[in-house]
Specification:
36% helix; binds 2-phosphoglycolic acid; 10 helices; 236 residues; 20% strand; alpha/beta; globular; TIM Barrel; 8 strands
Length: 236
């Protein structure tokens, strides 16, 4: 079974979001794919109440807790809505809201405490990729985010090279496979109930089959291509 995660970011208005949501909810239930989708935060609760059985993910959560925290999305509110997934540490959140690996680690712990399955995003910049330091960079990200003092429940990790997001560029297939198996290897020192490694960054109709065929890749996280009905219908 491969995870297919649609990240609609802030691309879609309400009617476009509802249209795509209907398409996703019509996809056949099979043991080949598990679909999760992440609408803009403003629409999440509405979508979840219209489609209670669907696997909706929030695009982020905050760590401040219940109380006087204007503008915050507390993780306990996800539970109220029966939302079971959240993206964490997406590169756009990291750059727009100055989120660090340490903060991603704190959010990860909160997800575990509240039975939310996190989709943790990591990835290197173009200059790190060019200087062939990807593995050591990812190793550092992992060791800052994860702790071997914790017993993790289900975690989804998305390898998303920053230079690949929204650019139409991707690493070579062999590089994606190598990095995802490297991540599987270094994550062995932590305790998980279940861990899956996904690839994200310029996944589209032209490359998805090849990426999903890579042995070390458990699925994909898709941004802009996933806002097109033709992409959703690919899975029909
Ligand atoms: P992209 O985005 O598919 O548009 O490159 C992926 C992501 O940001 O998760």
């Amino acid at each position: 079974m491969k995870y297919i995660i649609f990240n609609w970011k802030s691309y879609l208005n309400l009617s476009e979001t509802l249209k795509l949501t209907k398409l996703v909810n019509k996809l056949p239930n099979s043991n080949k794919f598990k679909f999760i989708y992440s609408p803009n935060g403003l629409f999440t609760s509405l979508i979840k109440s219209h489609f209670p059985k669907s696997n909706v993910a929030t695009q982020n959560i905050d760590i401040f807790g219940v109380g006087a925290n204007t503008g915050s999305i507390d993780i306990s509110l996800l539970k109220d809505l029966k939302i079971k997934f959240s993206l964490l540490g997406h590169s756009e959140v990291r750059s727009n809201f100055l989120e660090s690996d340490k903060l991603v680690g704190t959010k990860l712990k909160q997800c575990m405490d509240h039975q939310i399955t996190p989709i943790v995003c990591i990835g290197e910049t173009l200059s790190i990729y060019k200087s062939k330091k990807t593995k050591s960079f990812l190793n550092k990200q992992i060791s800052t985010i994860f702790s071997n003092k914790n017993n993790y429940q289900e975690v989804i990790l998305a390898y998303e090279p920053i230079w690949s997001i929204g650019t139409g560029l991707t690493p070579q297939m062999s590089e994606i496979d190598e990095i995802c198996s490297y991540l599987t290897k270094i994550l062995k020192k932590y305790s998980f109930k279940k861990i899956n490694i996904l690839y994200g960054g310029s996944v589209n109709l032209d490359n998805i089959k090849e990426i999903l065929n890579l042995p070390s890749v458990d699925g994909v996280l898709v941004g802009s291509a996933s806002t097109k009905s033709s992409f959703i219908n690919f899975f029909k």
